[in-house]
Design goal:
The complex is a heterotrimer of chains A (405), B (325) and C (290). With 405 residues, chain A is α/β, with parallel strands linked by helices. Chain A has helices spanning 8-20, 29-36, 51-70, 91-103, 115-126, 157-174, 190-205, 224-233, 244-256, 275-280, 282-285, 300-311, 318-337, 342-350, and strands at residues 38-44, 80-86, 108-111, 132-134, 150-152, 181-187, 209-216, 237-241, 263-267, 289-292, 366-367, 370-371, 377-382, 385-390.
Chain lengths: 405, 325, 290
């Protein structure tokens, strides 16, 4: 739905040429650049388990490319020619796409979304020194393997957990420390388990007592037992970290069973900062807090993009604006590099101080591939809308804590 | 297929491919195809020759993958040793599952389902056990040296997996020729009759299961070395179980080259479907599924079966002529 | 470790969930018992039925419980057609081919749903979806209670069909002895198709019961398939009371093992039971001795 703006014939040509050319040797990317603008690989899991997020990510990236091309393309290099790839929500799918994109001579690859896919893609791209910009994947391992080609625009686990807990402590202290006991409900694959591990070490350091940590699979059909345990132990805070569907089920079940903790504080909560959730279940969503990826609410560009997306009938989710920002980042780096050359691009990314993105990160600064300014922000569902409550310089409202009875 | 000549020819032809083809896209495609062919050949030993349809071969694939990864990452074991250990432990797991199920006399659909259940149990355990890294999975460090069984060039990986496939082809071929193979096929055709003739069916099936498990485990070990990341879904998920049974059935179950042919066809169809369907979500898989159904409808004994049937049809009129002088 | 209140609530939750599992399994056990195939497409059909129920609500304004009356016959027809026109002919009567054809079907159906409706999760919001009955120590959601009762009603209807009608007798005959039934003049392919249709109709009703408290997306059915298989094996192939009892048992087992082992590891309870039953008593609780 999102990529109908791109000519079908060109996509087909790209795909068939890479496959049929069994003995093709990839042409130096410089020659390609001068002929047909700049090729960029846009890789997301658009089919398989993660297809919703993948499609949203692709949407954000292609919108950015359209905007850049409408303004005449990249300075000195011409228009961006996107090569869309489907990672099939698996590492093998991602790797196969990297090969195709490399053969087609892309200057860089953007995307990945899921940590497992990002890990495989970054390694595959590293073989060709192909710059790879991670959109969302939060596993710390993505940038700690010493791969020179990998750049992560958004924050990783470590930063997210630390920010979440610092903010939690601040909110709690400010309200007079009403919360002491905590229960964590997390999904049991890479992102949920990784986060839970960090929370388990750091929460006690902030003076919180963890009553129980409950893992659950994705998908989980029923949360009645989980809510039963929550009800029985009555924690002050419930901390969920999971994907959209499970988050919604959990929240609805808690509402159904009249479980009302002093606060629901999500960390990378699947639905907690989702407009879709707020729209469809306003009562269950009220006062829920999240520490998650979020756009800069004061940025006119971000708001313009929001309107564009909503006019298309889609929800403005983090995959959209993070990918949008990544494409903008790469375009800026390409302009500064002056050529669609991979080594020059990598160098330009490393020295990048880009602030034309829509995230509350400040100018980019990459150290060992990680953007230092990247951090999540705290949001809360207030007045049927999602408002940023921390950090103070981006805040739109004050946090409401504990949840009013 | 008579003798070792066909195997030698096929393997030699494949080995020459990286010398001609430079495109990494194609090499990657072929490596993955051979990996699946290897897993499928494992299944073929038990399912094709033995007639025991396992729906949970991922149990062995995952065992091989995880053992190789964990030994390297947590215990610093050399990659080649870890690879070997993966195969051995995979075979052992096959032995355990086989012992439990065959001694209980489970056959047919029951066997299929219980194999699925075992794979699921392993998946769940792997997703919570600390040793596997639980949900986070196990990441093997990128270390492009021969000692670490990792290579800069895709061609090198290709030759490694080709060697494994060649071994599996030999195993199948030897099996076909051996007395053990005869017993196994007898069990497939009619287990009760075979027992009546003195074949120790349980023993035979168990043996076949262990060989089958070892081969599929090898595919798992290779996966770890090639992709450097394993988690419970990748290792023990139903996807691998389905690929392992799909390829021999499409290529021709109970034949030496069935899984290899099947893997090539299935993967090619998958790629072709993606070309035809473009990148609309799900469309390529729809094409894939339809083709699967069509193949079953019109070539139920697999592609090799199709070839043999048509060969017989051509031979028959000639025989009739000869008989009538 | 856990107070009796929690245990009782967990058991009640398990029974309510188990009832819906039972309904999904009912369809599967019929198909399995008669056609002797593992119907891989069952989960995808459940997903399709959920979408149907969703659109019945949004486009026709039909409450899911009413939509069941509409969807059951439609899905019966769909199942009949699938078996008669696709599975039957494609598999040439071979059990193993049927397996693969249903596998192919599940891929096609699930991805057709993905292509047509994308992966967005959809839910419907019913005024009574959040209403509960207050038992003092817990709140029982009303939609689940309704679901529980409906499942028993459906099981009863199915049992009546199987025991009292000619179609049911034909189905049982084919299940027991296909060749003999054929010789007695029963058209086997028609019976197969009817069985498949009945199984699919059950799935459609299950979807209508699920949708008030659940969500809809193309891969949702997958989650139910393995559990349904377990119930079929536990209850005994082809046994309607078996599927019912099996479903309730599995529901309770899942609930309790989730309570004691955690939601992730707790899933293991189901499969361990599955394996144990297969090793010790493969015909299941109510199955006929093979």
């Amino acid at each position: 739905m999102s990529d109908r703006s791109l000519p079908f014939t060109r996509r087909k040509f790209l795909a068939s040429s890479t496959l049929c050319a069994a003995a093709s040797i990839a042409m130096p990317s410089i020659l390609r650049a001068q002929e047909a603008g700049v090729k960029l690989g846009i890789l997301h899991p658009v089919s398989g388990a993660l297809s919703y997020s993948g499609t949203q990510g692709r949407l954000g990236a292609t919108l950015a490319i359209e905007e850049i091309n409408a303004a005449g393309g990249i300075k000195g290099l011409g228009k961006i020619d996107p090569m869309l790839g489907d990672a099939l929500s698996t590492p093998e799918g991602g790797t196969a796409e990297v090969e195709k994109m490399n053969s087609a001579g892309v200057a860089a690859i953007i995307g990945g979304y899921a940590s497992a896919v990002c890990l495989a893609v970054s390694q595959a791209a590293a073989r060709y020194d192909l710059p790879y910009v991670v959109d969302v994947g939060v596993a710390d391992a993505i940038v700690t393997r010493g791969l020179k080609n990998t750049f992560r625009f958004g924050p990783g686990f470590g930063v997210i957990a630390k920010t979440a807990l610092d903010n939690l402590a601040e909110i709690n202290n400010h309200a007079g420390k009403p919360a002491k006991t905590v229960m964590i409900v997390h999904e049991d694959s890479l992102f949920g388990s990784g986060l839970a591990k960090l929370l388990n070490t750091q929460l006690p350091q902030h003076g919180f007592e963890i009553l129980e940590t409950i893992p659950h699979p994705t998908p989980t059909r029923d949360f009645n037992n989980v809510v039963l345990k929550i009800k029985a132990q009555n924690p002050d805070l419930v901390i969920p970290a999971n994907y959209y569907n499970e988050y919604v089920l959990l929240a609805r079940t808690m509402q159904q069973q009249r479980v009302k903790p002093k606060g629901i504080y999500s960390v990378l909560g699947g639905a907690a900062s989702s407009y879709k959730f707020v729209k469809e279940f306003p009562d269950a969503a009220k006062y829920i807090m999240d520490c998650n990826h979020w756009f800069d609410p004061g940025s006119p560009k971000a708001l313009a993009l929001k309107k564009k997306i909503e006019d298309k009938g889609q929800f403005y989710t983090y995959e959209v604006y993070m990918n949008y920002s990544c494409v903008m980042l790469v375009a800026d780096a390409l302009a500064r590099a002056g050529a669609a050359d991979r080594a020059k691009l990598a160098a330009a990314l490393e020295s990048s101080t880009f602030s034309g993105h829509v995230m509350p990160y400040g100018p980019t600064k990459f150290v060992n591939g990680q953007n230092q300014g990247a951090a999540p922000v705290n949001t809360q569902v207030l007045d049927n809308d999602i408002k940023v409550v921390l950090p103070a310089n981006f805040a739109q409202a004050k946090p409401v804590f504990p949840i009013p009875a | 297929m008579r003798g070792l000549l066909p195997i030698a020819v096929v393997v030699a032809a494949l080995a020459a491919v990286p010398l001609v083809v430079q495109s990494n896209t194609t090499l990657n495609f072929l490596v993955v195809t051979l990996l699946i062919a290897l897993a499928g050949q494992g299944w073929n030993i038990l399912g094709g020759y033995g007639g025991q349809y396992s729906f949970g071969h991922a149990a062995f694939f995952g065992t091989g993958a995880y053992v190789t990864a964990i030994l390297q990452v947590r215990y610093g074991v050399n990659a080649w040793l870890a690879f070997g250990a993966g195969i051995v432990i995979g075979a052992a797991v096959g032995g355990i599952i086989g012992a439990l199920t065959f001694r209980a006399g489970l056959r047919g659909s029951y066997f299929a389902l219980v194999s699925l259940a075992f794979a699921e149990v392993l998946r769940i355990v792997a997703s919570v056990a600390p040793i596997t890294g639980a949900g986070v999975g196990t990441l093997v460090k990128l270390d492009l040296r021969v000692e670490a069984l990792q290579f800069q060039s895709r061609a090198a990986f290709f030759w490694v997996v080709l060697a494994l496939v060649a071994i599996s082809l030999l195993v199948a071929q030897r099996l076909e020729r051996s007395r053990f193979g005869t017993w196994l096929i007898a069990v497939r055709e009619n287990e009760d009759a075979a027992k009546a003739l003195g074949v120790n069916a349980t023993q035979v099936k168990l043996c076949a299961m262990m060989i089958s498990a070892a081969i599929t485990a090898a595919a798992g070990c290779f996966y770890t070395q090639y992709f450097l990341f394993v988690d419970s879904g990748i290792a023990f998920g139903t996807r691998m179980s389905i690929e392992a049974l799909l390829t021999p059935i499409i290529g021709g179950a109970g034949t030496v080259f069935g899984p290899l042919l099947g893997a090539l066809v299935v993967q090619a169809v998958g790629e072709g479907a993606k070309l035809v369907a473009g990148d609309a979500p799900g469309l390529s898989l729809i094409v894939y599924g339809c083709i699967l159904i069509l193949v079953i409808a019109f070539a139920p004994r697999g592609l090799i079966g199709l070839v043999e049937t048509s060969r017989r049809r051509v031979a028959r009129p000639a025989k009739r002529e000869a008989a009538h002088g | 470790m856990f107070s009796p209140v929690i245990l009782i609530t967990a058991i009640l939750n398990g029974l309510l969930t188990g009832a819906v599992y039972a309904l999904v399994a009912l369809g599967l056990t019929l198909i399995y018992g008669v056609l002797h195939i593992i119907n891989f497409a069952h989960g995808a059909l459940l997903s399709a039925a959920l979408f149907a129920a969703f659109f019945a609500f949004h486009l026709l304004g039909l409450d899911p419980y009413l939509a069941a009356l509409l969807l059951a016959p439609i899905f019966f027809g769909l199942g009949y057609a699938i078996q008669r026109l696709i599975i039957g002919p494609a598999s040439h009567g071979d059990d193993r081919n049927m397996l693969l054809v249903t596998l192919g079907l599940s891929v096609v159906i699930e991805n057709a749903l993905l292509y047509a409706f994308r992966a967005d999760t959809r839910t419907i919001d019913l005024p009574y979806a959040f209403q509960t009955i207050d038992l003092g120590f817990t709140f029982l959601p009303i939609p689940r209670l309704i679901g529980f009762c409906v499942v028993f009603a459906v099981a009863l209807v199915l049992w009546a069909i199987m025991r009292r009608t000619d179609v049911g007798k034909a189905i049982r005959a084919v299940a027991k002895e296909k060749l003999g039934a054929q010789l007695a003049g029963i058209e086997v392919s028609h019976v197969y198709a009817v069985t498949f249709g009945l199984g699919t109709a059950c799935v459609a009703i299950a979807a209508c019961l699920l949708i008030p408290t659940f969500y809809v997306n193309p891969s949702v059915g997958e989650a139910f398939v393995l559990i349904a298989f377990t119930i079929v094996v536990l209850g005994g192939m082809g046994s309607v009371p078996g599927a019912l009892v099996g479903g309730l048992v599995i529901g309770v087992v899942e609930s309790l093992s989730g309570l004691f082992l955690g939601e992730s590891l707790g899933q293991i309870g189901i499969f361990l039971i599955f394996i144990a039953v297969l090793l010790v008593r493969p015909t299941g609780l109510f199955g006929a001795r093979a």
